[in-house]
Specification:
alpha+beta; three-stranded antiparallel beta sheet; 8 strands; globular; N-acetyltransferase domain-containing protein; Acyl_CoA_acyltransferase
Length: 169
Amino acid sequence: MERLTERLRLVPIGRQHAGELWRLHWDESVAAWYWGRYTAQQAERVAATMGRGWQTRGVSKWLAYDRGSGELVGRGGLSYKTLVGAEWLEVGWLLRREYWGNGYATEIGRAGIDFAFGELGAAEVVAFTEPHNARSRAVMVRLGMRYQREITHESDRYALYTITAPSPG
């Protein structure tokens, strides 16, 4: 399930990646959007959950590494989320601060959407973010996603975007 994009190597997250996930969530800019820095135990739990997603559903998040330097850029990909009473295939991304503004989030998002529509045969993919997260919303638009509405998820408000699979032919 490893994928290569133009600049990134995307590696499925499993239990063995807990240390890298912890490092990623210790970046101040990542922690600000994810309710603080991960503890080692949180990173272990999340890495194990993502690994199970790959094993049981064939989909979860990737760690993203720069293909040239091998440096950890961020994470992203797909997961199943229950939103507004239905299960959706959701694409997401997060990057270490030093990689913001260089198109990496769009590259990760595109890889996730291509995987969803190609290998998984999904009809639709969603993404959501806090309404004030202009950077993430701009990525969604660059990916061809359309704003649908504000939703409430786990007591917080989010902007919901969708993209549908291209028509065959």
